[in-house]
Fold these 2 entries.
Entry 1:
Amino acid sequence: SDLKLFRKKIMDAVDLCIGTVPIYEAGVVTLGKNKEIIDMDPDDIFKAIENQAKEGVDFMTLHCGITKDLVQKLKDAKRMMGIVSRGGTFMASWINHNDMENPLYENYDYLLELSYEYDITLSLGDGLRPGCLADASDIPQIQELVNLGTLVKRAQDANVQVMVEGPGHMPLNQIKANMEIQKTICHGAPFYVLGPLVTDIAPGYDHITGAIGGAIAAASGANFLCYVTPAEHLSLPSLEDVKEGVIASKIAAEAADVAKGLDSAWTRERAMAQARREFDWEAQFNLALDKSKPRKYRDKCELDDNEMCAMCGEYCAVKIAKGDF
């Protein structure tokens, strides 16, 4: 299939961990049978998981924590945005339509057997993550996290590597507490957060809102930041959108590493300060998270004097005081 070919091309092209969401492929298979997603055959989900595992996928996002009981709680919660996770919607809608338990939850031991056999890391998906600030830290989100905590322990006992996905939209003042709750409930499992986005009114700038939340989350214990592009909520991202999103997320990660006192981060920060003090432009470009953008700004200045930038010109504070302090 095209999906298999796409995965192969990606795995051949990069030497990085590759993650997938198998229920998407199960959904494609279901639609190919002229059936609706809500009529998905659970066997197709497990076939997608096993086939992708055989291909060499490293980690899989699986929405195991959405239970039949939790779907009813979600109805009662009357959220503003309902479910915004695509995989979460597939699973919750399937449960609601068929009045049956989540097959990934019900057959979790079998899933652990597959994961152990093929050395797959489980990324337990937050299918009920908040899709707007108004839904953050509500009962469905926290109840799913409690469910995932139980599943984390079962995975750890089965010697299966496991991490947990976290919230997408969340006010600044709730982020730290959410990180601490996850670490406690989920037995210290790595936390993978989607942003979080700290405001809902900045479409076109969600890479920035995500970086703000990501910095706080990472400084408070999150282990893995999912980048957000400027095109989030609007369109498919371009290559430039992806770059902007990745750089913004790297900025968040660096800010958090500095706050946590990591030697590697402080080494980079001190090296940049030294390069700026010495007007070593090449060193500054090489140390920068984005190595091309600052060079373009510098070239645009067309300055003859290397010991200044166009912002202050001959009134450059560093140049005037050079050697004195």
Entry 2:
Amino acid sequence: MKCRYKILIVDNEENEEAVSLLKKNLEQEGYGVDTSLSATEALEKVKNTKYHIVLTAIVMPQMDGLDLLREIKKYDPLAQVIMMTEFSTMGRILSALEYGANDYILKPFKSTEYVLDIIQYAVKKLERWRDAFIEIVQ
């Protein structure tokens, strides 16, 4: 069931080890996972591949996660975008919500299970949307 969901993890090079560990944990749960170490690279991947869920850091060089969020939503409004950050302000949280973020995780993560719960919640939202579309089409 989960294998049909594709996830993109976006964070900068400073967090490459954490990204690799998260990727491994998600793959063990049956998700297809790609990674990107920059927002600009991630945007190119989003343009060429369907990702159901994108986990993205906010603070990154060149293009930040909020700009990436806005661009992702242009390509796929249903993509579940989960923001990740170590440095949060009320303004960033409100901007993320305004731009269409589906969730917000503070780093370091409480636990792998915590991140998996958030992803499973995003999957349930995707499935509700899919069911609604199927019902409308029938």
